Amino acid sequence: MTNLSHDPAAAVEQAPDPTAPTAGVGPHPQPWPDDPRLDPELLAVGDRRNVLDEFRYWRLEAIVEELDTRRHGLHVAIQNWEHDFNIGSMVRTANAFNVAGVHIVGRRRWNRRGAMVTDRYLHVHHHPDVASLVTWLDEHGVSPVGVDNLPGSVPLEQEPLPEKCCLVFGSEGPGLTEEMVAACSKLVAITQYGSTRSINAGAAAAIAMYSWALQHAR
Fold it and tell me: Could you tell me which residue ranges the tRNA/rRNA methyltransferase SpoU type domain spans (predicted)?
């Protein structure tokens, strides 16, 4: 679920640093636009967040409401057994593709550092185990597709993906668990051409989401 409360950390996130490069926009010239989507605090001090220009000065809640009108049918699930540092990067990529939901399976606490606060603009769900994830996906008509270079996987670049699907990723290193593989409707792998056995989980997630977008993104 998304935390839609007013973000008191925004001021901390945007605390001025005289040594940092200028980013975003400064205070909005007065008179301010009469638009309920705009945040008076951001209008007054400027908006240094990493958001698209169309969302400058918007309240967090207003941005989420607008993104909800554009969400894709794609979901992303991540097995969180080892507090993997890649999870934050995967969540940030999920925000870039405006997925319908991110599902953290296993430990509730996950490594948010790489997310760069992008999870605030997403709907993040927690599932204590594989069974609860599968139940949620079944109830919402979403097909789980595992992404791992395991025996029996088919090349991602040659496989059509369902429009309403959940790309499922394992932890860095161990990959998907046997229970999760058994729960997936299919298993896909990213074809590699070098000597390494696998690629970084965050990079794999980005490639898989882009592959889905090539087939279905509007």
Answer: 74-210
